[in-house]
Amino acid sequence: QVLLVESGGGLVQAGGSLRLSCAASGRTFSSYAMGWFRQAPGKEREFVAAISGSGRITYYADSVKGRFSISRDNAKNTLYLQMNSLKPEDTAVYHCAADQLLASVVGGTVSGSWGQGTQVTVSS
Questions:
Q1: Vertex 18, ends 93 and 97: CA angle to 5°?
Q2: ∠111-115-120 over CA atoms, to 5°?
Q3: In the chain, what percentage of residues exceed pLDDT 90?
Q4: Where are the alpha helices (DSSP H) in the chain?
Q5: Does residue 58 have a pLDDT over 80?
Q6: Contacts of residue 70, Cβ cutoff 8 Å, sequence gap at least 6
Q7: How far apart are CA 115 and CA 41, in angstroms?
Q8: Looking at residues 17-35, what average pLDDT do you find?
Q9: Cβ contact 96:79 at 8 Å
């Protein structure tokens, strides 16, 4: 398994942007499908975006399509989430996750590694 550490969260006004990063340990980062999930207070964790090991295939939740972009730099063992046009309903703790199967990430059944999360707060 890989160790994942998120960063880049913070407080931003509605309409603003943030870029989250997820640094992964290990030398096999490119073999993992990666994803971003979020959990708001009192709500269940929800899928945000996923990306294949090569970076060629991406998936997004309908709620973030056209506003968020997932990407990865395998040379730097880092996953990113560019978030634009942020809304108050995007407020949540954002976690990155890794799994050998892209389908597991998209389906939210990750059996691999999870990061500790980074708080994103969007004010109205």
A1: 45
A2: 125
A3: 94
A4: 102-106
A5: yes
A6: 34, 35, 36, 49, 50, 51, 58, 60, 79, 80, 81, 82
A7: 18
A8: 94
A9: yes
Nearest-angstrom CA–CA distance, 88 and 92: 9
Order of all β-strands in the sheet with 18-24: 4-7, 18-24, 78-83, 68-73
Q: Is the Cβ–Cβ distance between 1 and 113 less than 8 Å?
A: yes
| pLDDT at residue number 26 | 78
Cα(47)–Cα(59) distance, integer angstroms: 10
φ, ψ (nearest 5 deg) of residue 30: -65, -15
Q: Left (φ > 0), alpha (ψ -120 to 50) or beta: where does 76 sit?
A: alpha
Taking every pair of C-alpha atoms in the chain, what is the biggest distance, in angstroms?
A: 41
- Which residues contact residue 85 at a Cβ distance below 8 angstroms, ignoring those fewer than 6 apart? 15, 17, 67
pLDDT of residue 43: 96
Average pLDDT over residues 20-24: 98
Q: SS3 of 106, please?
A: helix
